[in-house]
């Protein structure tokens, strides 16, 4: 059989079968198509404006390395006029982060981009190694994820940058959609699918230009462009990423390669069906310059590169347990509001009745009100943000450990 | 009652019964009995009996629902009250593989066991004459309906039969597990938008449907494994009515040689069989929550020629860029005819149906 030719240029021999749609392409056309699609994402969602200073959240892994390379290429090719810098977080994990940071340093030289590294140690006075020593290997990803979300923002603020791009890909977003359906979290579902996150009031916005790029294609791109990246998974999450949603998505992808993007599309569409959401389907509708912005607080698509959105079996078991307990408690519930709320003498009976929560009452999707953390000033829906709460717990334990 | 232990048969059947009766009660309130003219020709009109249509796939859930509806009727009759409803049971068979006589014979045991209900078997090909599907444009985009739209066609037929038999509601046997599966499989097929139309109870009105139809899922609070248990506990057991009962009850039991041969539905069934066993509350939670999604319908939007969901032209346009379609060559070796069909399809089909029908 004659070797098949590239479906686009029809002259070169096809080397690559695209995971996204099984089109057979040559190396050059694949690279070009991959870049063109990200250009489409950037322009259709109006992610950047000319002259914008943008920090690329760089971990040294494949996603952020490809993101940096593609943005550099597109910035030059299409004249975005972006001022690109690399921003890395040093969690303080010996044997993992120190090596991957070396990769980022090399990338910084190769791409000619300035690099800033922000450490957990300087921000929180804790390295992840120390956190793990204190709380053990179980559950430490929560700390790392919460700390990282803030660290990127704080790093960007230090540099006077208002836009951080991250390397989240289509597989990550699809996983988050499935995860949020499984844990029945509609408000997170509606937030996590937006390409731009970060409240209008928050000083730093986030976006994911690789949102529609398949993980497999990112690997292919890195391979064919001979990019240098660091592929070791975090040493503290060895079992965590065999998550339920991830396994399911991989199976679905085998059945239908387009499933990943179909899930992302469903997620975007469903976000509009969540009670209280805007019913617009277009990324730019009603927004003249920028794509719609969703609040990023605990949006759930964060965490670390390796456990992102993936749930260890434990979380599912915990959710199941909690739901069961709720069911049991619901049976024991007695409505006491009526007896308590008897008006005092002389007081007018104008008081509002307290809403009685029942299972059938329509929920407003649990929308949170965004404020600021009283301690660190970071945006938070609670009085004290998650990071400060976690730190408080850690610091309480510290003296005991030192003894 | 915890949902894990295998309980005493009497209590368990009672538990299942109570759960379905609760839903049937809601249904009874949502429907009003029809007013019929006085048979004597004069005098005041009379109040008729409610009439429902049940879609029977011959699977576990719909068979259980049939039994539960029967028990409900028998209970009322035993109290000396009139039957609460009349039921037409419809089995849609795929006439590519099954002859009408085979389909008829499949329903024989049901007819014997439930003599008060009316049974019909209906060929899938009857969907070709339905006005609710825009066949001319669909067929110009596609030569043959692919197998993965069969469930859509079945649904169309059931909806239209509900209207043509003057039934007041269409009853579907989906269990909690089935609704959770449907939620995730519709999502995986790019049909997330259609979920509120697919799994919610209530009046379903679609642009292509002559009038709204009340759709109800009375078993939405019962897990599949509980229904499987129930089939063994009725007297006589329901298992005799369900073809391939073992295979249906144990989706994971038979080995998969090639995962590519599975359908998205099969992947979901296997996945949820596992989740249901270990984390039943998670399944219930998915089903409950997805039912909270609301329908948005923009009057100006036309409906998809196949599933009838509102179309989203802008969204689809933007997505073609993300999918890598458009300026990039679509399919390798695609003929002009193929390309024309693809373009035609985009005009008439929603995103999900394009993915199902055109690949």
From TrEMBL, chain A:
Localisation per UniProt entry: Cytoplasm
If you read the UniProt record, what top EC class would you report for this enzyme, in one word?
A: transferase
Region Disordered: start and end of each range? 344-366
Its annotated pathway reads: tRNA modification; 5-methoxycarbonylmethyl-2-thiouridine-tRNA biosynthesis
Query: Per UniProt, which keywords does this protein have?
Result: Cytoplasm, RNA-binding, Transferase, tRNA processing, tRNA-binding
Q: Which SUPFAM superfamilies match?
A: Adenine nucleotide alpha hydrolases-like
Instruction: Using the record's annotation, list all stretches that form the tRNA(Ile)-lysidine/2-thiocytidine synthase N-terminal domain.
Output: 53-233
Pfam families attached to this UniProt entry: ATP_bind_3 (PF01171), zn-ribbon_14 (PF16503)
The yes or no answer to whether the keyword Protein transport is present is: no
Query: What does the UniProt record say this protein does?
Result: Plays a central role in 2-thiolation of mcm(5)S(2)U at tRNA wobble positions of tRNA(Lys), tRNA(Glu) and tRNA(Gln). Directly binds tRNAs and probably acts by catalyzing adenylation of tRNAs, an intermediate required for 2-thiolation. It is unclear whether it acts as a sulfurtransferase that transfers sulfur from thiocarboxylated URM1 onto the uridine of tRNAs at wobble position. Prior mcm(5) tRNA modification by the elongator complex is required for 2-thiolation. May also be involved in protein urmylation.
This chain belongs to the protein called: Cytoplasmic tRNA 2-thiolation protein 1
Per the UniProt record, the source organism is Podospora pseudoanserina
Gene for this chain: CTU1
UniProtKB/TrEMBL annotation, chain B:
Biased composition (Acidic residues) is annotated at: 324-337
Query: Which key words are in the record?
Result: Cytoplasm, tRNA processing
Where would you find the membrane-spanning parts of this chain?
A: none
Stretches for region Disordered: 315-343
For whether the record's keyword set contains tRNA processing, the answer is yes
Look up keyword Cytoplasm and say if it applies: yes
Pfam (any one): CTU2
State what protein this is by name. Answer: Cytoplasmic tRNA 2-thiolation protein 2
**Upper classification of the organism:** Eukaryota, Fungi, Dikarya, Ascomycota, Pezizomycotina
Gene that encodes the chain:
CTU2
